[in-house]
Specification:
By secondary structure, the protein is an alpha+beta fold. Helix content is 29%, strand content 25%. It contains 11 helices and 16 strands. Helix 4 (137-159) packs antiparallel against helix 6 and helix 7 (293-302) packs across helix 8 (316-330).
Length: 446
Amino acid sequence: MSERTLVEKLQSREDGPVTISGWVETVRDQKKVQFVILRDETGAVQLVNPATRPAEDGSEQDAAALALTDLISNLSTGTFLTATGELKHDERVKLGGVEIKLAALDIAAAALPETPIAADSGLDKRMDWRFIDLRQRRNNLVFRVQTTLEHAMRSYWVERDYIEVHSPKLMASPSESNAELFEVPYFEDKTAYLAQSPQFFKQMAQVAGFGKIFEIAPAFRADPSFTSRHATEFTSIDAEISWIDSHEDVAKMQEELLQTAIRAVADKHGDEIKALFDIDVVVPELPFPRIPLAEAREIVAARGYEIPRTDGDLDPEGERQIAAHVQETYGHQFVFITDYHPAIRAFYHMRDEETGLTKSYDLLMGGVEITTGAQREHRVDVLIEQAKEKGLDPEHLDFYLDFFRFGAPPHGGFGMGLARVLMLLLGQESIREVTYLFRGPTRLAP
């Protein structure tokens, strides 16, 4: 077999023999000419074949030409094949300005005649047949964007001497609380838990003297939620740094990280995102706006919305309202909401000695929370008291509390949902659209 050429490379090749491979997207079987749109992982190209039909008078026809015409007539959408032929540049061809005059087709795997999903199929139906749904050019781009986003983040961290860690996802005890946990039967009648986050292990790395670490890995929440932004398994982007003065040091790092990553996406994929999603990728300016939670609630109330939650936090509509205010006032898609009351934060968030509020933040992007960040409490006696306030038994946290009994630097970090960032960056309504294989309360397949 001749060397395969990717579709994206065809425009730069000279006219002449070429071999490409991909799946059949469209077949137009006309009386005198046949057209096949073949797509690979980089794009689509038009294949052309002058149709050779059996002569009405029974005269002899070219057997190879008849066979190729018949083969094309019976192609099913989705069939994977290799095509060889003559590449020809022609500016009249709308699809890339090139086409291939077919010489032969070699079918690798034929598809069934009827495709189970269509362009207008509902989201759940498309999720049932995700491997077919992912063939769409838009969906292909989602995961190219994801790759660029993650690579840019890793590059930011690695260039600044961060250490990448891979923390365990099987835990002997809950990572933060007894809620939203998946229990897993373990050896000798033991019970393990799927990690809700790498929180404790990120902090352990600080006590171990790593200084600055990051991790991009799965996390699990046994949350029976069916919203557009929740999943039972998701990819969490986490970082933790030592020797900080406050959560502001963490926020500064995160806004630089996001600016770097979004700029990389804009540079590499901006035009294609505009063409396929009608979204302009806007690189955020620094610094991101900061608004204390109490002030944010006042702003939301002034906009005519009464937050129904009684714990003092923002609800989803409140987040959208404060984001609208920030966009109108600062022209910015991001905002840090800061100074949360301890009652609505984790026990390990450090508290400000003057205000009693936590040194923490939530980061909103386009009106949706994507991050919780904080300075951590590193004094073991304070940690124990704050755990008790939350109704947690310190004895069940001994392995965690031990980290701080042998010296710990002031530190802090954040956790951020990858799918939420992608969803908002590409203007999608659900994380299902930007998750390779979604997992939720009622979905474990494919």
